[in-house]
Design a protein that fits this description.
GO cellular component, one term (chain A): plasma membrane
Distance between the termini of chain A: 51 Å
Strand content of chain B: under 5%
Oligomer: heterodimer
CATH superfamily of chain A: Cytochrome c oxidase, subunit III, four-helix bundle
Shape of chain B: globular
Protein name (chain A): Cytochrome o ubiquinol oxidase subunit III
Pfam family, one (chain A): COX3
Family (chain A): Belongs to the cytochrome c oxidase subunit 3 family.
Membrane topology (chain A): Multi-pass membrane protein
CATH class of chain A: Mainly Alpha
Structural class of chain B: mainly alpha
Helix content of chain B: 55-70%
Number of domains of chain A: 1
Chain lengths: ~210, ~700
């Protein structure tokens, strides 16, 4: 690392000190983690791709796709990501932790709405007999959608934990770096959802 | 629903209750021999008794010696990369004892296998499955992870890993996997589908028992640990290099470690995905790899080998790194062709992702696809060949000392090249069709893994043991052990090439052709030589500990080393370096010695911040072992409890601010100046006296000619 001062993460507004250097290592590490997660999702997508035709006489894409519900879910998740970016911006410009927390709570509520909608959809699938035990296609569908849903749920736990930390300690350097990392995770899940939305649902009924 | 009659998988026929799942007293292997006395059940029960008694002996020893507190505070909660590295290597040796013992039992069985051996077919299948799983995942992986842990921060001039607590968690997850495999020796049975555990044979339809579940959870949990290790190493190498340590100044071991880390990051997710899908198939009735309702086992084969082939290079690259350090150090020469070695390593890392299909040429692809993968496989031999030439050129006219590491190197040169050639033969799909699934394959991969990886590890242990513990290993015992490994390997595995070509299928419990018998007897003799070689390792360690005073090298540089780790006392202090060194060239320490300015007292000392101890590793180990064991035996409450506690901990953990431990500058100064003073009192030892008691770790360097 060069000796000259560098503002490694202007997005976090940490200045030029030791905090920025630590954040640089942590955030880079988190990018690498996201890369492994991307490989994981990519493989599940690939498996889904090979199993699109493997419906074994059971429900196919037409039966499992409710585009209206999927559209609302997409709006909720993209809205959640949008709210999170406002939280990040208010953190960057030092607009007080209250504002950051409000946007975080918007993001969390919206994501919770997404999960509820997804749950209702999956319950409907069980009702029409489209359980993962029915066919290879449905196994892959449930695994892919479920893996994404689990990621969102874990992310929600993270928002909860971070909210508590911000209330207790305020926006310290350490917590700013955590907000940044959770933000990366949040937007990453959005990108994965765009993939699910287009590959699983749109391509399924198109 | 009647609670008693309910089982999670309908029709699986297991007697299930909420408290102990499908686990019953009858699953304890310890009692098997008493219920059904036979040679077969005697071997099974004896193995589990050995495991239980060995664990008990360790517990008693720790209690009698009052070492529990020491074990806890010095080792288990330590986040020091050096201690974590040593614990990895120790794990590898413990598991290796099991793997070698299984090997001997298997060879004994095969020597009697003409028209059926002394073990039952299931027991035999369990043996080759556990042997492979243990040796790859819990011997080879901990060995290389241990070396990378120990060496990376020392060689790049850092104080610790980028994420020290995560490092400890990785070790905890590896221990979870090892623990599950060891538990399977005592409770229930392991799977019988080989270390690759191909479904549908390992699916719920054919094997509903706990065996494949043990495999899945051991592999998935330890696999996540390995992935996190890779992440940690990569970030450490990218971000924590000392000032001036540019990429092209890094020691070659660090380059191989970087490539291995990248492979770990990309290749472990396929294994996790394959394992979890297999678990969903088995536990929740999904249809990823089943025979019916749209399942496709080829997806498993592809996922597994997308991991499995890079895994081969994950294991061998750090060994290449060790050989590179070895040749340069023990020939007292600069490494010939550093740049080509780096390029070769990177090429191997990239091409290793393009060859996975050569593990199943016979499973129905078109000849075109097979040809493409055959060509890619042939190509990967080129950078490997480059490396062998680089090492030979480095040795050329060097001041070679035929000490233990060099004996392993010589064995590696002769035997590994044979293994490599058999690999090139196998790369050709047409030939591969003839010998696939025969002992020829067994000969090939033992030939690359044993002389390639394991010889490298043992050579590395001889090189860096004095760094870690402050005394050298016993030279004579080490040399005898090394020759035993070379002879044992040759006797055991080279005959397998012949019987493979004669058509002896691998993994078969019996054979029908009496022509194989003499070869099988030779390999049995070889197995006993290998067993004595393993005992030789223990004897070497025992003799070294006994003679540790005359073998002591506290000054830190017994081999006239070239890289930064030798510029520290042995063992290195917790913080590695009194001040972080400034790097001006390749082979940093060798440069300093050549310029006649090693061991300079720094002008200014500063306080050093080090991460504090943590219980995270032990905690994650306990939780994930509960999850793995619970899911294997369908003890849902245990698995859910483990998962909830783990999640709750992840939620709460960040609330506690982890402060650093500060080591005052004065303490560092005193320690460092005492070490430098001790050096100045001594005369450097010449390379001719390297293995005599005069060697206290201060080298009279001949670097002037050598750099």
């Amino acid at each position: 690392m060069s000796a000259k001062a560098q503002n490694a993460h202007p997005g976090m507004n940490l200045g030029y000190g030791e905090g920025a250097r630590k954040a640089e290592v942590d955030v880079f590490g988190f990018w690498v983690f996201l890369m492994t997660d991307l490989v994981t999702f990519g493989l599940v997508f690939a498996i889904f791709g090979t199993m699109v035709g493997a419906t074994a006489g059971g429900p196919g894409p037409e039966e499992v796709t409710d585009l209206r519900s999927i559209a609302i879910q997409t709006a909720l998740l993209l809205g959640s990501s949008f709210a999170f970016s406002w939280a990040s911006l208010s953190m960057k410009y030092d607009r007080g932790r209250g504002r950051t927390l409000i946007f975080l709570s918007f993001a969390a509520t919206s994501a919770l709405g997404f999960l509820v909608m997804e749950f209702i959809d999956l319950r409907h699938l069980v009702e029409i007999g489209a359980t993962p035990q029915r066919s290879g296609y449905l196994s892959a569908l449930w695994a892919l959608v479920g893996l994404h849903g689990l990621h969102v749920a874990v992310g929600l736990l993270g928002v909860g934990s971070l909210t508590g930390q911000i209330l207790l300690y305020g926006l310290t350097d350490k917590i700013k770096s955590r907000v940044t990392r959770l933000g990366l995770y949040w937007h990453f899940l959005d990108i994965v959802w765009v993939g699910i939305f287009s590959m699983v649902y749109l391509a399924g009924v198109a | 629903m009647n609670e008693d009659a309910w089982t999670p998988i309908p029709g699986s026929g297991f007697d299930w209750n909420p408290l102990t799942g499908r686990l019953h007293w009858g699953d304890l292997k310890l009692l098997e021999v008493f219920e059904d006395p036979s040679i077969n059940s005697f071997v099974a029960s004896a193995a589990s008794w050995i495991a239980v008694l060995a664990a008990l002996a360790i517990v008693i020893l720790l209690t009698v010696k009052r070492r529990w507190g020491w074990l806890w505070s010095e080792w288990l909660v330590s986040v020091d990369h050096k201690k974590i590295g040593i614990m990895y290597i120790l794990t590898g040796f413990v598991m290796m004892a099991r793997g070698v013992a299984e090997g001997v039992v298997m060879r004994t069985h095969q020597a009697t296998a003409y028209q059926g051996g002394f073990l039952s077919n299931e027991h035999w299948a369990e043996l080759f499955s556990t042997h492979g799983t243990v040796m790859i995942f819990f011997v080879a992986m901990p060995f290389i992870t241990g070396f990378m842990n120990y060496l990376i921060p020392l060689q790049i001039g850092a104080r610790d890993m980028a994420f020290p607590v995560l490092n400890q968690i990785s070790l905890g997850l590896t221990a979870t996997g090892g623990a599950l495999v060891m538990i399977s020796l005592v409770v229930g049975a392991f799977e019988t589908g080989g270390w690759t555990a191909y479904p549908p044979f390992t699916g719920a339809d054919f094997d509903p028992g706990p065996g494949p579940d043990y495999w899945v959870w051991a592999i998935v949990l330890s696999g996540i640990g390995s992935m996190l290790s890779g992440l940690n190493f990569a970030v450490t190498i990218y971000k924590l290099r000392a000032p001036g340590m540019t990429f092209m100044r890094m020691p070659v071991f660090c380059w191989t470690a970087l490539c291995t880390s990248i492979l770990l990051v990309f290749a472990l997710p396929p294994l996790t995905v394959a394992g979890l899908m297999q678990a969903l198939d088995r536990l929740a009735g999904f249809h990823f790899f089943t025979n019916d309702l749209g399942g496709n086992m080829m997806n498993y084969a592809n996922l597994f080998w997308m991991f499995g082939h890079p895994e081969v290079y994950i294991l061998i690259l750090p060994a290449y790194g060790i050989y590179s350090e070895l040749t340069a150090t023990f020939a007292a020469k600069k490494l010939y062709g550093y740049t080509s070695l780096v390029l070769a390593t990177m090429s191997i890392a990239v091409v290793s992702f393009c060859v996975w299909l050569h593990h199943f040429y016979t499973m129905g692809q078109s000849p075109t696809i097979n040809a493409a993968f055959g060509i890619a496989t042939g190509i990967i031999a080129i950078p490997t060949g480059v490396k062998v030439y680089v090492w030979m050129a480095t040795l050329w006219r060097g001041r070679i000392r035929f000490t233990v590491p060099m004996i392993y190197m010589a064995g590696f040169f002769m035997l590994f090249v044979i293994g490599g050639f058999s690999g090139i033969i196998l790369a050709n799909p047409a030939i591969n069709w003839q010998v696939h699934n025969t002992q020829f394959i067994v000969a090939h991969f033992h030939n690359v893994l044993l002389p390639g990886l394991i010889f490298g590890i043992f050579a590395g242990v001889h090189i860096w043991f004095p760094k870690a513990f402050g005394f050298r290993l016993h030279e004579r015992a080490g040399a005898i052990t090394a020759f035993l490994w070379i002879a044992g390997f040759s006797l055991t595995f080279l005959p397998l090439y012949v019987v493979g070509l004669l058509g002896y299928p691998r993994r078969s419990a019996a054979f029908e052709d009496p022509a194989f018998i003499p070869y099988m007897i030779v390999t049995l003799c070889g197995a006993f030589v290998l067993l004595s070689a393993f005992i030789g390792l223990i004897v070497t360690l025992w003799l070294s500990v006994r003679h540790r005073d005359e073998l002591a090298v506290p000054l830190g540089d017994p081999w006239d080393g070239r890289t930064l780790e030798w510029a520290t006392p042995s063992p290195p202090p917790h913080y590695n370096f009194a001040v972080i060194p400034e790097i001006t060239g390749r082979d940093a320490f060798a440069t300093e010695k050549a310029e006649g300015r090693p061991y300079v007292t720094p002008t200014e000392y500063r306080d050093i911040h080090m991460p504090r101890d943590s219980v995270a590793g032990v905690f994650v180990f306990l939780c994930t072992t509960a999850i793995g064991f619970g899911l294997t035996w369908w003890i849902w409450w245990l698995a859910i409890l483990g998962a909830l506690v783990l999640l709750g901990w992840m939620f709460i953990y960040p609330f506690f601010d982890r402060t650093d431990e500060v080591i005052p500058a004065e303490t560092v100064r005193l320690a460092n100046e005492a070490w430098i003073a001790a050096i100045s009192l001594r005369e450097g030892v010449d390379r001719d006296d390297e293995t005599t008691p005069r060697n206290r770790g201060f080298a009279a360097t001949d670097m002037e000619q050598a750099t």
